[in-house]
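Bump. Still looking for Thiamine-phosphate synthase structure tokens.
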Amino acid sequence: MTIKPVSLKPIVWTISGADCSGGAGISADIKTLHSLGCEVCHFITANTVQNSNQLIAVNATECQVLQQQVDALKTDKPPAVIKVGLIVTLQQVHWLVAVLTQLKAANEKLVVVFDPVGSASVGGKFHDLTADSLTVLLPLIDVVTPNMLEAQVLANDNTDKVDLLAKGILKLGATAVVIKGGHSNQQVMEDYCLANIDDEQHVFQLASEKVNSDFSHGGGCSFASALAAYLANNHLLRDALTLTKAFINQGLKHHQGIKGYYGAFEQLGKANNANDYPQICGQLAEHYKALPAFKSLGIERDGSQGLGLYPVVDSLEWLTHLLPLGLEIIQLRLKNLEQDQLEQQIKQAVALCQATNTRLFINDYWQLAIKYQAYGVHLGQEDLQTADLHAIEQAGIRLGISTHGCYEFLLAQQLQPSYLAIGAIFPTVTKNMTGQIQGVDTLSHTLKLARHIPVVAIGGISLTRSEDVWATGVDSLAVVTAITQAEKPEQAVKDFQQLMSIPAGN
Ligand SMILES: Cc1ncc(COP(=O)(O)OP(=O)(O)O)c(N)n1
Ligand SMILES: Cc1nc(C(=O)O)sc1CCOP(=O)(O)O
Ligand SMILES: [Mg+2]
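Sorry for the wait, here they are.
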């Protein structure tokens, strides 16, 4: 087992107001950011006077003071992410535009999350700034997190259609918007995210049961701060959003049913309970909501009869080499073959694997997997958009799905496949997985969200790295180059099999 070095925490700056009643603003931001593994620097834009019933006063900070603080910290503790909350004067808006422009010029990777706070949850307006005066900030904002009312104000549109509001807000220059569903009266709340990623618009939608709690003061600030914390810890936006939602659900459930006063939202660190995580909605989930579960792999998760090593190979030669070694599962991953060759190889592979009673998964080519009655088919996220999962299920063959991070994992799990793959655990030479490297800690955490479907880890798993990955409790290790580029491939298989004969954690 490798000893993990303690790493430096990412630095997050929060620029927002102080709430003397303790629940919201800077207090919520600091507690959230600390509980999610960040170092925090704070810049207080206003000293507000409020209690559980009303907002009494808002005392704005001079921009000169804020600028002194920025000057003191910009090279001493430069931010990875800035969370912006309450801004109360036009001077502050202009000051912020100048500061963000300067900091972004110095660090093009700097991420800015903006929670456009307008009114206090106890009632009363924090400022008289118009939407127009705030929108000058939006071209400098990576993610803006309004609730429905704030989104309508920003987009200058009274519609309750979140997709239209989101499009309107992106047109004003923000890279992504998350419209929070927290203020809805519905029992199920939906958060809607629209993001420009690599010049394409992507939608991410999450749904959770509404949690009624009197301890929700500062929930909105905590939401934006948690998002900032997860982005600072290098999660993709879709995963940061999913983790944030779970953080909020977990915090709200903590004091559910306790009455007395309007209490501060509880920051409890990363959510480890699968029940706190949202449902993933959207077109794919909607399209397959009536899809039955796929056939299982018929393994026992108690270690008595596991899947063992899962070689992923690209030829019949490799199948012929490896099948005599006593494998439970293998994948044929053919790329760039002509149709007739492809069909011949898949047909022969099915026959070879039936002879040794090995579960054969065909990568990508689901129609051919059905035609030749392979044991199963493996599909990636892009393949899911075009494949017909009803046809695969109807044909009675199994389905494995690739996932990269908790958002895709939860979405794929809702489709009830035969197994789920998590990758890429490490950088790999087999495929470009830039930006989707999970690491062992994220793998361990995503495994906590697994219900009963077996989970396979893939990507950069060498024999030396395999011990840590196996110790997480995954059901199988899928490997390409650790076998195909090994000096002695058969021996490599045996070494993996030896390691995996020891149940995880022993
Ligand atoms: C077990 C396993 N996990 C992941 C993959 C990758 O599938 P996909 O994302 O479709 O990418 P390609 O393999 O098609 O490049 C896999 N094949 N097997
Ligand atoms: C094919 C593939 N899919 C991945 C994913 O994360 O979905 S990683 C990967 C490459 C696996 O090859 P190797 O064992 O040589 O790193
Ligand atoms: Mg594929």
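The longest helix spans residues 237-254.

Edit: fixed formatting.
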